[in-house]
Amino acid sequence: MNIGRVIAGRYEVQERLGSGSLFVVFKARERTTGRSVAVKTIHPEIAADASFCNALLTSLHRVEEFAHPSIARLLEVVIEDGKPALVTEFVRGMNLKERIKRIAPFTVSVAVDFAIAIAEALQYMHASGVIHGDLRPQNVMVGPDGVVKVIDLGIAAAIQTSAEASSRSAGRMAYYQAPEVALQGVIMAGSDLYALGAILYEMLTGAPPYPTESANQAVMKHQTDPVPSPRAANPGVPRALDGIVRKALQKRPEQRYASAADLLADLKTVRDALRFGRPLTWTPFEEPAGTPSPEPVVPASSPPDAPTVRAEGPPKADPPVRKPRPEPPQTTPVERNVYVARDDDRIAGWLRGLLYLAMAGLFLIGVFGLALWFAAFTRPDTKAFPDIIGKPIEEAQRMADAVKVRLLEREEYNDQYDPGTVYRVDYESGRPIRPGRTVLVWVSRGSRLVWVPDVSDLSAGEAEAKLKAAGLTLGRVNRETSDTVPFGCVVAQNPRSGKRVDRDTPVTLILSDGSAVVDDSESGAEDQIEHEWTIEHTVKRDGGGRRQVRIEYEDAEGTATAFDDVRDEGDVIDLQVRGLGRRLIVRVYYNDDPTPISENVVRWEEQ
Q1: Would the CA dihedral through 189, 119, 100, 247 be positive or negative?
Q2: How many CA atoms lie within 13 A of 419 on its CB side?
Q3: Per-residue exposure over 290-315, b if at least 16 CB sit within 10 Å of its own CB, e if not
Q4: What is the pLDDT of residue 209?
Q5: Which helix (H) or strand (E) segment is 525 a member of?
Q6: pLDDT of residue 135
Q7: pLDDT average, residue stretch 127-131
Q8: Per-residue pLDDT at 136 exceeds 90
Q9: Where in the chain is the domain with CATH 3.30.200.20?
Q10: CA dist., res. 444 & res. 461, Å (int)
């Protein structure tokens, strides 16, 4: 697909982002709103498979209405060159696989936060009756602000209908695929939870649960090898989180978590424990019944009095019989005193027990006192988290700085709060919080819909400023004569004032070109005078490459073409034309677009 191509009449392709096993991904701009989107087109080898395309359309229509902060939104499915193409929310950042390659193993808190976001997305999907089926780090995007987005929902079912698509995807899916998927081709909610367990394992250790050189070996290990422990590979993993991962990676679906909600509850418990310093010694994982116990350790050599077994057969002599331990010899009184002096038998048993208890008590008191000292003098003072809902983000940040807490911002549209205002916080106000913590806050981008203001009779600059203040953008500017509106001021606008439209919608303005009535004593003579005009145009640098450029001018005699040729981006076109009258209207067209990309009115006094 060429850069500059317009898809479905409104998405202009700007750059190629990359290529996966099934799709080629482009960044595009929606012409009506100016927002960036991602466009995914199917590889030509797979696009020829009609069954795959039909199954893909069916699956995608089920997720087209999904709206969740941890799911990249599917905006629409368009047909391009007779094949479906996906238009999705554009997510800045990198996929989780690339992030793991760069900085894994993650800290426990970061890994848990990412896993919670993915689990929340799975809970939303499963509640809607949709299984992801191809959950892996490559299908999880992480923004520069830490926002997590799950992508490529509803594609796994379509992959199963195509041998070509299955073979292309098998290599990447094998390292995160539950055993029942590879054995029986059955995709269920538990398969997504298994994949999340594998992703969490990789975030904590830097490698997938069963790292192998080939996808086939990985499939076999997922079916036969014991469930690995991330704690064994990374001693910094708490016991509770180790149990969560091992439970999610159980080979039998019934031994895993029953739902994404159950897994999410355990992950949030770990997150809260990390925040408030609670112990993480519990575990949700129980060894299945019948798990063999470890083999006993065999000593390297036998004791000196053990019988020797020869290679030629059993020993001829009977094994020696251990003799009873002889009684200690009778001693004289002097000898008895020496014997007693070397032994503790002279202390009564009950007194010895009291001494042991006293020593144990003193030890416990010392440990407890030391713990109290550390709690009182080493832990930072906690302060109440301020109420920042409804506050501008700048003021909220100052309030957070006062308690030494960092805010992590996430912008979303909200109809109830003004742009730049905090409307949701992932921490309860008034609750004690330690310095150095990070709290997630949601900042309003304003309502998705805004009212179009009335910019009539304003100058072009004033009108543009008023539109921007209302959340809109300046669109095309045309001119027409007007007997009532001063030159250069707004005659009309589209959309009209009082209408509610999407934020960032471009507004077309028509500016006054002055009165059409002229002084009869001068008009007739002036319109018959031929002037020499200079026309200059620089071809836009917009990624469109070489294009056909046509320049027309309109004078008192009519419209004529001054230039029509192919030019590169940035080329300067300098023309000299002769035209009748005191004004010239110059229009510039690119390629076969009937709408001019620019239209300028030049008066002879301005030359």
Answers
A1: negative
A2: 10
A3: eeeeeeeeeeeeeeeeeeeeeeeeee
A4: 95
A5: helix 520-527
A6: 95
A7: 92
A8: yes
A9: 6-89
A10: 28
Tell me which H or E stretch contains 414: none
Q: Which CATH number is associated with domain 6-89?
A: 3.30.200.20
Which residue is listed with tokens 């927002």? 35
Which amino acid belongs to residue 207?
A
Quick one: average pLDDT of 381-386? 86
Q: CB of 132 within 8 A of CB of 125?
A: yes
Q: Are strands 473-480 and 506-512 parallel, antiparallel or unpaired?
A: parallel
Quote the pLDDT of residue 597. Answer: 86
Cite the residue boundaries of each domain of the chain with CATH code 2.60.40.10.
523-606
Question: What is the arithmetic mean of pLDDT over 501-511?
Answer: 87
Q: Residue 82 is encoded by which pair of tokens?
A: 């007779």
* Mean pLDDT value across the chain: 82
Q: Which of 286, 289, 183, 181 is nearest to 243 (CA)?
A: 286
Cα separation, 497 vs 455, whole angstroms: 8
Q: For the stretch 400-413, what's the b/e string if a residue is b when 16 or more beta carbons lie within 10 angstroms of its beta carbon?
A: beebebebeeeeee
Structure-block tokens of residue 587: 């229009």
Q: Which residue has the higher pLDDT, 286 or 165?
A: 165
For the chain, state the CA radius of gyration: 38
pLDDT of residue 346: 47
The per-residue DSSP string of 423-477 comes to EEESS-TTSEE-TT-EEEEEEE---SEEEPPP-TT-BHHHHHHHHHHTT-EEEEE
We find that the CATH architecture of domain 523-606 is: Sandwich (2.60)
Q: What would the pLDDT profile of 8-27 be if each residue is shown by its tens digit?
A: 888 999 998 888 888 899 99
pLDDT at 207 over 70: yes
Domain 383-444 part of CATH 3.40.50.620: no
State the Cα–Cα distance between residues 469 and 375, nearest whole angstrom: 52
CA–CA gap between residue 44 and residue 191 (Å, rounded): 30
**CATH classification for the domain delimited by 94-276, as one of 3.40.190.10, 1.10.510.10, 3.30.200.20, 1.25.40.20:** 1.10.510.10
Cβ–Cβ contacts within 10 Å for residue 105, how many? 19
Write the pLDDT tens digit of every residue in 484-500: 888 889 999 988 888 88
Give CATH 3.30.10.20 domain extents, the chain: 383-444, 449-512
Evaluate if residue 324 carries a pLDDT over 50.
no
pLDDT at 329: 43
CATH class of the domain at 449-512: alpha beta
pLDDT tens track for 60-80: 888 888 999 999 999 988 888
How would DSSP label each residue in 57-113?
A: HHHHHHHTT---TTB--EEEEEEETTEEEEEEE---SEEHHHHHHHHPSPPHHHHHH
Neighbouring-strand partners of residue 511: 479, 490
pLDDT at position 379 is 53
230 pLDDT band, cuts 50/70/90, is: very high
* DSSP code string of 209-276: SS--SSHHHHHHHHHHSPPP-HHHH-TTS-HHHHHHHHHHT-SSGGGS-SSHHHHHHHHHHHHHHHHH
